[in-house]
Specification:
- It is a single chain.
- By secondary structure, this protein is mainly β.
- It contains no helices and eleven strands.
- Strands 2, 4, 5, 6, 9, 10 and 11 form a seven-stranded mixed beta sheet that branches.
- β7 (68-73) and β8 (78-83) form a beta hairpin.
- The protein is globular.
Length: 126
């Protein structure tokens, strides 16, 4: 099994920044790529960003590109999402996910990822 634990979510004002971390444990060697998804209240899970453990091939949703930065550290088994210029629409529960594929056949589809964390709440006030 692979366990993922997110941290760093909190209340922040619009225009502010947050750093989310995802700590992976267990059979991490079976995974090849990581991703962040988010789910706003009453909405479907939405792709945010994905990256290989190698740090290559970072991809972002159009709504966060240029504002968010994803990075990975295979040695530390950690994935970080730095979020800048946050907007109220960024308010959501942010989930860390892991895939055994690189790249995932549909990297922006949550069904492509096998392991999930419990999420961390990010609230952006206007």
């Amino acid at each position: 099994q692979v366990e993922l634990v997110e941290s760093g979510g909190e209340l922040v004002r619009a225009g502010g920044s947050l750093r989310l971390s995802c700590a992976a444990s267990g059979a991490v060697f079976t995974t090849k790529s990581m991703a962040w998804f988010r789910r706003a209240p009453g909405k479907e899970r939405e792709f945010v960003a994905t990256i290989a453990w190698s740090g290559e091939s970072s991809m972002y949703s159009d709504t966060v590109k240029g504002r968010f930065t994803i990075s990975s550290d295979k040695a530390k088994k950690t994935v970080v999402l730095i979020m800048n210029t946050l907007k109220p629409k960024d308010t959501a529960v942010y989930y860390c996910a892991a895939s055994t594929n690189y790249p995932s056949p549909e990297y922006n589809n949550w069904k492509s990822f096998y392991y999930w964390g419990q999420g961390t709440q990010v609230t952006v006030s206007s």
